[in-house]
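Sequence, structure tokens quoted for completeness.
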Amino acid sequence: MPAIRGSESKKKTRRYTRALDQVHADLASQRHLELYHETKAHEELPALGQYYCKECAKWYESETNFVAHQKGKPHKRRVKQLKDEPYSQKEAEAAIGLRTDNGRRKGEVEEVMEEDEVMHPVRKPPQQVLSGQHEEQYHHRDYDDPHRNTEVPPMSLVGQPGHKILQLGTSENQEDYSYQSKGYARCVWHTKQT
């Protein structure tokens, strides 16, 4: 073939053999292989179609060539490819996004997320702190707040935008406060009434 038409013309479609899923079906069902052989005229095949490699889907002209092929690297490579199961129609549709999304994902994604949450605590929103259930000191792993562990409110930040101090509630001889910075609780402290 002339190379005038570009590199695409150099790809030999006449050497194209059966796909892996077709060969898998040939190996699984003898009838499937017989149907394929019936489409070929034996007079036109090498050695009248006697030497056929099922894995590679090729005919050979002599027993010597057939045995040499079975010892070769291309045949062994093809056998190794056939050990994997072929893709199903369901997997092919899922790859292009034609599947039903039922909500939560399954598998390794959740496990990785759970490990990440254990290793790095997540900031809690102020509503959980305001409910009185959580009186721990929350902080983001990338943010180092110097006022995080103080027992005194950081009054220098009270008037600035995005910073506020909330009174969580009062109990006997004690007032609970929370310092918030940009929507997230930074510390919770208690002051005793006298």
Observations:
- Residues 126-192 form one domain.
- The mean pLDDT is 70.
- The helical segments are 20-28, 30-38, 63-71, 73-82, 89-95, 108-119, 126-130.
- The CA atoms of residues 37 and 49 lie 9 Å apart.
